[in-house]
Write a structure and sequence with these properties.
Rossmann fold; binds guanosine-5'-diphosphate; 13 strands; 2 domains; 7-stranded mixed sheet; Ubiquitin-like (UB roll); 3-stranded mixed sheet
Length: 364
């Protein structure tokens, strides 16, 4: 599955947000055992109304949404890269994530101490980014020692790694995070394997006061501007409200939202923003037993998409019977779609599209 790390300075609302995310009724209602894997790791259902529509048409007994993992990564403070705060463990935690949700304090509250003594989300973002850049530089330096040795020994992969590490280092020394480096197609895989902290895509989460939850405020506007300049994404959320909503039943939550002038829970927006940030898509498997959503990267071909369900599906892949979501819904289900000639047989080269309803045929 895909994993988002929640980072930010202390007291910005990370834990509040994490609790809201993982305790929400929506996260749990969805017929899969909600699990807190570890105290700071939780799985969340990705909200997708299409899945309910498909289940209704097919009369599926069970609805199983696709999931996303969130990790609450505490301990990032100024000096963290020097081993202050929680030290290296949390850097390792960040390294394992696919993307970063960077929570920024965009609310004033005299009762909640700000570690830097003022509310300035753009400056806060820089504090964290600087720590991550320093940590990257340190790890690159360490790794280069080994890699240079391997290059001398004639290791071809090491040649590529050395080149990429030096490119990243040049950017960092220039004050730019590794995500600003443009990487050739041939280098993309090796680049990702470097797991540089500042190469991960960022979603800025503006934690605003209750009154600003629908509109945002001056602080969140500055963050939005910063995000736009960096080509990053941002969302406005009130972690405290979200935590309150997460305690409510679905219909109560809906009423509460409309009273606040919100169309949907901020958490839904947050999860979907994460999905977009990671260039993820959803395909569906639909039958009388269950309707289920599966997550793939954009551009995934049919056998690899099948592999998300089970490794054997990929190995023995024969073909995928495919119905586009719109056809499935407009025509009223699998059988009518088939009769209308809208079920296609697709082979190994087929690139799965968002919303595809699929059946896989495979050899055991
Ligand atoms: P963390 O250290 O980043 O995990 O921060 P917490 O989630 O523990 O929150 C720190 C404090 O700020 C707690 O007392 C929260 O109740 C409070 N807090 C979190 N979000 C908000 C918010 O949106 N508004 C206000 N006024 N307080 C908040």
């Amino acid at each position: 599955g895909f994993k988002m790390g929640i980072v930010g300075l202390p007291n910005v609302g990370k834990s509040t947000l994490f609790n809201a995310l993982t305790r929400t009724a929506a996260a749990q209602a969805a017929n899969f055992p909600f699990c807190t894997i570890e105290p700071n790791v939780g799985e969340v259902a990705v909200p997708d109304a299409r899945l309910d529509t498909l289940a209704e048409i097919a009369g599926s007994k069970q609805i199983i949404p696709t999931r996303m993992t969130f990790v609450d990564i505490a301990g990032l403070v100024k000096g963290a890269s020097k081993g202050e705060g929680l030290g290296n463990q949390f850097l390792a935690n960040i390294r394992e994530t696919d993307a970063i949700a960077h929570v920024l304090r965009c609310f004033e509250d005299g009762d909640v101490t700000h570690v830097e003594g003022r509310v300035d989300p753009v400056a806060d973002a820089e504090v964290i980014e600087t720590e991550l850049m320093l940590a990257d530089m340190e790890s690159i330096e360490k790794r280069l020692v080994n890699i240079v040795r391997k290059v001398r020994g004639g290791d071809k992969e090491a040649v590529q790694q050395e080149r990429l590490l030096r490119t990243a280092m040049a950017a960092l020394e220039d004050g730019k995070p590794a995500r600003t480096v443009e990487v050739d197609e041939d280098d993309k895989k090796a680049w990702k394997m470097l797991q540089l902290l500042t190469s991960k895509p960022i979603l800025y989460v503006c934690n605003v006061d209750e009154a600003s939850s629908a509109t945002g405020n001056e602080f969140s506007k500055k963050v939005a501007q910063m995000a736009a300049e960096q080509g990053a994404a941002s969302v406005v959320i009130s972690a405290q409200i979200e935590e309150e909503i997460s305690q409510l039943e679905a219909d109560e939550a809906e009423m509460f939202l409309s009273e606040m002038g919100l169309e949907e829970a901020g958490l839904d927006r947050l999860i979907r923003a994460g999905y977009e940030l990671l260039h993820l898509e959803t395909y569906f498997t639909v039958g009388p037993k269950e309707a289920r959503a599966w997550t793939i990267k954009q551009g995934t071909r049919a056998p690899q998409a099948a592999g998300v369900i089970h490794g054997d599906f990929e190995k023995g892949f024969i073909r995928a019977e495919t119905i586009a979501y719109d056809d499935f819904v407009t025509l009223g289900g699998e059988q009518p779609a088939k009769e209308a000639g809208k079920m296609r047989a697709e082979g190994k080269a087929y690139t799965v599209k968002d919303g595809d309803v699929l059946h896989f045929l495979f050899n055991n």
